[in-house]
Amino acid sequence: MTRRNFFFGTAGAGVGSYSYAYYFEPSWLEATEKQVAIARGRLRRPFRILHLSDLHASEYIPMRYLVEAFEKGLAAKPDLICLTGDYITSDRDFDAAAYVQALKRLTSAAPTYAALGNHDGGDWAARAGWYPTPDPVIQILEKAGVTVLRNRNEQVATTAGAVHLVGLGDWWSNDCHGARAFEGVPLEESPIICLNHNPDGKEECLQAPWELMLCGHTHGGQVMVPFYGPPRIPIIDKRYAHGLNPFDGGRWIHTTRGVGNILGFRINCRPELSTLVLT
Ligand SMILES: [Fe+2]
Asked: Is the pLDDT of residue 42 over 80?
């Protein structure tokens, strides 16, 4: 190989990898489906939950991509939709009115519930110079008909049966209050599902009676190195970086890779539309 061939070959591979990581994989949505056996409560039939997270509307994640993701997610015919935080990245580069219209596609298809993430406003976002409270994000969600569970719980009845949802506030924003969130949760009737943006927030409710916890936050690492895994995962307990993983007492934690991303790239870690089927 001549020096000239080597140079152009290497440069070509670099441009190809860059284009793949920034222009192809970030919008290459993968729809996944996992079965979860739940002991408590009686469901009339398998109960389908569409779990979406980390939408990150921003200069890198346009609304048309989120609408496409919602349409593809709804093809799974969910009985319930759960959103686990990071609807925006910062306080700019998204259109609130367009966001409300986009989210209405979800709420018109199934009951839709949401927990908040660190990017959605509060202590963590304020340190980055963004929203000091999640009120602007809560407004977008509620205008679209999404029920926001911020350290509180609610029973949801669907044609497939009833579940009890508990939503925690964000762990990094010092807004994750397990005792308050689980106050008054009925123990005998329905499966109890906890919406919690950051899997580390489980430390706030280790003894609480949830059976399935839905999380996001990690983006699956955004970059997955073959035979090694993600080089950087922003959580302490790395067991819950992505996927459906067992937790003490026959419980489950599901961490989805999320729909959006930060800074516009993904490598070997496609955006995910997760469906969980409770049986
Ligand atoms: Fe995120």
From this structure: no
Ligand 1 centroid vs 266 CA: distance in angstroms? 13
Per the CATH hierarchy, to which homologous superfamily does domain 3-278 belong? Answer: Metallo-dependent phosphatases (3.60.21.10)
Distance (angstroms) between ligand 1 centre and the Cα of 22 equals 17
| Angstrom distance (rounded) from CA 144 to CA 47 | 24
Please, are residues 226 and 267 in contact by the beta-carbon 8 Å criterion?
no
Q: Please name the residue that has the structure tokens 């290459």.
A: 28
Residues 6+ apart with CB under 8 A from 10: none
Residues in the chain: 279
For residue 143, report the distance from its CA to the centre of ligand 1, in Å: 22
The number of beta carbons lying within 10 Å of the beta carbon of residue 62 is 16
* pLDDT confidence bin for 90, thresholds 50/70/90: very high
Residue for token pair 């999380």: 215
From 111, 50, 109, 114, select the one nearest 83 (Cα to Cα).
114
pLDDT value for 3: 55
Whether residue 262 contacts residue 219, with contact meaning beta carbons closer than 8 Å, is answered with: yes
